[in-house]
Amino acid sequence: MTKQAVCAIVFGVLLAFQGQPALAAGEGETASAQQLSRDAKATLQKLYARVPLAKSLGPKAHAILVFPEILKAGLIVGGQYGEGALLQGGKAIGYYNTAGASYGLQAGAQKYGYAMFFMNAKALQGLESSEGFEVGVGPSVVVVDEGMAKQTTTKTLDKDVYAFVFGQKGLMAGLGIQGNKITKINPK
């Protein structure tokens, strides 16, 4: 790859994130608790409207952790970050961020969100009792893609945590939540 091509890709990634509110939050500010709660609830309702399996899992879940918007960017080395709320009984009971880093053949920028359905108290305890919950370590997390969501019923589900990734926008290959670290935050 030529030096000009690398510069063009870096410039494109920077332009993609210019003026994004989440980047401003990365300067030490987090969204308010009220805003995170409102965004998480609205995002969960949109997920329910689009994915019947998510809607049927909702009432069975012990709690649901919703990250309405995560920004991911990279050029060889990549990173992602987002903030969300833990909902139980329709109310926010905690606030978290998710962050991850990756290395490899990657270039681009993307926005997406995800919701994690904690199906039992033990799985939720893993989130609440750790200094940082790492996806892929601890309770088994199943990422539900569009095909699985159409072919699965709530009777066949037996794992601790189900994650739904949604709203992918942008150009970037290699979307995943494996290895993301989830940490409790104290928004204003």
What can you see in these coordinates?
This protein has about 190 residues and is an alpha+beta fold. The chain has one domain. It contains six helices and six strands; from the N terminus they run ααααββαββαββ. The chain has helices spanning about 5-15, 20-25, 35-50, 50-55, 120-130, 145-150, and strands at about 65-90, 90-120, 135, 140-145, 160-170, 180-185. Strands 1, 2, 3, 4, 5 and 6 form a six-stranded mixed beta sheet that branches. The radius of gyration is 17 Å and the shape is globular. The N and C termini lie far apart (about 45 Å). Residues about 1-30 have low confidence and may be disordered.
* Low-confidence residue ranges: 1-28
Number of helices: 6
Number of strands: 6
Distance from first to last alpha carbon: 45 Å
Given the helix and strand composition, which structural class is it? alpha+beta
How many strands, which pairing sense, and closed or not: the largest β-sheet?
6 strands, mixed
Q: Percent helix among the residues?
A: 25-40%
Mean of all residue-level pLDDT scores = 76
Secondary-structure element series: HHHHEEHEEHEE
Radius of gyration: 17 Å
Shape: globular
Indicate the proportion of strand residues. Answer: 35-45%
When the domains are counted, the total is 1
Question: Tags for this entry?
Answer:
single chain, 6 strands, 31% helix, 188 residues, globular, alpha+beta
